[in-house]
Amino acid sequence: MSQPHVRLGFALVVTAAVFFGINAGVTRIPMEAGLPTSTYTTIRVTFAFLTFLVLAVAFDRSALRPPRGRDLLLIVALGVVGVAFVQWTYNVAIMRLPIGVALLLEYLAPVLVVLWVRFVRREPVHPRVWPAIGLALVGLALVGRVWDGLSLDGIGVLVALAAAVCFAAYFLIGEELTATSAEPLTALRTVVWSFGVGAIVMNLLGGWEGSSALAHDASMLGRLSEFTIPAWAAMVFVVVCGTVLPFFLYLASLRHLSSSKASVTAMLEPVVAVIVGWLWFSETLDLLQTIGVLAVVSGIVLAQTARHVPAEELPPPL
């Protein structure tokens, strides 16, 4: 890959992670207004699909062409595992575990991605990626203050680990569809069909119970608690800026970055969420958490320095 394309891929992932991190704060508005978690996920996925559908009709109608054969199977897998289940498992995990522990377990995903690439695909991985992941995970543990949740819910841990598997699958399947396939799908075509599958799954599992909560005004919470907005307006932000934009950017980045580097860079998301919590909700950000933020960023930078490496420096294929 040329250097400008790699930089573009890195910029796309960072932008997606920032939007996801901000969305963690905005999500609290409709949830605090009384919107049930399962309904929240159903609305989020369904309206994201409808938005992608409108974009396809307006800008690229070729994205409406159904994938076939192996690509269709991968799209179904991406929709079920990488779209519907990744959000459902995450929402269940944060209800049963401290948020820091849930995020740490979910962000084992980059480790799973690298393990898959190295030992299943049997592709060489630069040794520098391993300490980068380790540094980022240690930083994430500090950011999430995981020691505050030593008494853990067993089901919550299993669901959080399932979220890690689903998140890893999103990167690996997305890479297969948009970058390494014999006839790669465009990012728009991929999200249209995968979110269509995800919307069907969530409408079957989640339903729309309690959606009337979106008709009421809701507090903006935290430092902005004196202001109110319609709960549906916050949900529009969640759909457009917290779902459509970042999910599309993640898939688009996989044309320029490997799934292993993209997934490590995505670990910036919980760091942004903690900073949002500090700025918006007056949550504490102590010295250890600050060190953790720096450690995560350092791990991401270290992973990115392994972009252009001579072949002789890589371990041999398995």
From TrEMBL:
One of its GO terms (cellular component) is membrane. It is found in: Membrane. Keywords: Membrane, Transmembrane, Transmembrane helix. Its main location: membrane. Residues 8-143, 155-302 form the EamA domain. Pfam families: EamA (PF00892). The chain crosses the membrane at residues 40-59, 71-90, 96-117, 129-147, 153-173, 185-208, 228-252, 264-281. InterPro entries: AA-Vitamin_Transporters (IPR050638), EamA_dom (IPR000620), EmrE-like (IPR037185). It is a multi-pass membrane protein. Belongs to the EamA transporter family. This is Drug/metabolite transporter (DMT)-like permease.
